[in-house]
Amino acid sequence: MAVTWNNKLKWNTGYxxxxxxxxxxxxYRNVLVCGTYQLEKKEEDQECSEQTRLGRIYLFIIDKNTTxxxxxxxxxxxxxxxxxxxxxxxxxxxxxxxxxSQGFIQLYHLLKENxxxxxxxWTDLSLSENTxxxxxxxxxxxxxxxxxxxxxxxxHGAITALKVTANGLQSIGAWKGHDFEAWIxxxxxxxxxxxxxxxxxxxxxxxxxxxxxxxxxxxxxxxxGVTSIRSHVEVEHQLLTGSYDEKVRLWDARNLKQCVxxxxxxxxxxxxxxxxYKPTSILAACMYGGFRIxxxxxxxxxxxxxxxxxxxxxxxxxxQYSEDSLVATCSFYDCKLHIGEIIFD
Length: 345
Hints:
The protein is mainly beta. 0% of the residues lie in helices and 55% in strands. It contains no helices and 29 strands. Strands 2, 3, 4, 5 and 6 form a five-stranded antiparallel sheet that branches. The chain starts with a strand and ends with a strand.
């Protein structure tokens, strides 16, 4: 398969950009958020004070015919490490979960009023003091629920599970998952009771919420910190992990003793996303190695395209929920958001 990456649009985010997410809800699939994170510059007489981490969420409306990027809303908050849309409506609105450098998880409603779309903070919860919340995931990417679940990982190596209720967020469990930063946590989308975590201690773990004391399985096969985990919503038991060791690994979730296959992508793997309409195509953000399109066929992973148009660390990456195969990517120190079209021949 020949794959071409045609970049269409660029925009300067001002702050360092590390997260992009397209809304998956029907009727809102042209909505994109970009999250940023930046250390506040200090004056000379402030050297001994604690450094503040600033953040912004930029809200965009983008489709194939968009010719210029301009956010329709900017939300100021603390530094953003990750954000994810719920795959279903909550209280009749699309909902965005955001985790921040101050250890908060925030839920935003996406509101449509008078032909105008905007984000409004609905509820938030502090995980703990002096904690950076690092990643978040929803349980509902495949299985709808009246009370969706969330998992959040943090800088102290902990994983917190929460339930979304009519009154907001309710903590339902916490696990001391890793000795260092828990870079990533993600659900098994085929079972809302099961989720995963990966940490800077190079360990990949599996948890069952019905067994709250410890992980039910762990794997030490990664050669550096585990930074990305993604369960497939169409192929049961199929699971991807990414690591600072620059490898993408495919796993059978029923047997995590040994990966099915692995491939080197020439960069630490920060995010992995399956194409919503082409289940064998994967978008990978590979930090200092740029962005890659991977093809998963016959239990082999192949790099079929790369995009090196960013001048800094490749962090955020996501597919639009459209057969047009638009992608959003963002990079850190050069503060850039790019929109590209992937052409499959």
